[in-house]
Amino acid sequence: MKNAETDYPVHALIAKRWSPYVFSDRAISNEDLCSLFEAARWTMSSYNAQPWRYILGIRGQSDPLRDRIFSVLLEGNQAWAKHAPVLALGLAEHNFEHNGKPNKAAVHDLGAASAQLTLEATARGLCVHQMVGIDPDKAREEFDLPDSIEPMTGLAIGYPGKAGDTDEEYASRDDRPRERKSLQDILLLGFDFLMPR
Question: In three state form, how does the secondary structure of 52-107 look?
């Protein structure tokens, strides 16, 4: 794990969370996986609509399903994600169930659910690498999804690996320093009020 060097104190799980390219082939227990998706299940959402959906593939238990998920990842992601023992797709249900109207918060709420899933994974020594590099049309066809459900992201889930577990190109990415924009860059207004006068 690579802890972030934060400018201000944050919870240890937030500093510890990262998205590696190198995964160990070590299996993940069903209990841990259930807890990850339980964390996603309890995420807040607009009108409590809970518009997130997932498709889960586990090496050794649901290989055909994992292979189908793998097939909708873009080639650049397949090169490293093939080592992760668990792959998932994150999907957004775009219509409210209670009235059939469009849910403008669906993608936001899927992101929030995946963030909670990721923090639960971090608490268990696991890593999650989310990727937008999927083929949504292929995923829709592969899993026969209704029009209201949109494939949004892929998730590679596993224990962090060692440099020798994947190609050098991807291992070197994990050696890069972790960087983020400053608070001044992301707080468009209001940052001045946080600073002592």
Answer: EEEEEEECCCCHHHHHHHHHCECHHHHHHHCCCCEEEEEEEECECCCCCCECCCHH
Q: What is the mean pLDDT of residues 2-18?
A: 92
In degrees rounded to 5, what are phi and psi of residue 47?
55, 20
Write down the pLDDT at residue 193: 81
How many other C-beta atoms are found inside a 10 Å radius of the C-beta of residue 149? 18
| 84-127 residue pLDDT tens | 999 999 999 999 999 999 999 999 999 999 999 999 999 999 99
Q: How far is CA 174 from CA 97, 159, 170, 180, in A?
A: 41, 14, 7, 15
Residue with tokens 């923090």: 119
- Beta partners for residue 88, in sequence order: 56, 155
Name, in order, each residue with C-beta under 8 angstroms of 101's C-beta and a sequence gap of 6 or more: 95
Residue 86 neighbours by CB distance under 10 Å: 25
Domains, the chain, with CATH or none: 12-164 (3.40.109.10)
Among 115, 95, 114, which Cα is nearest to 105's?
95
pTM confidence score: 0.93
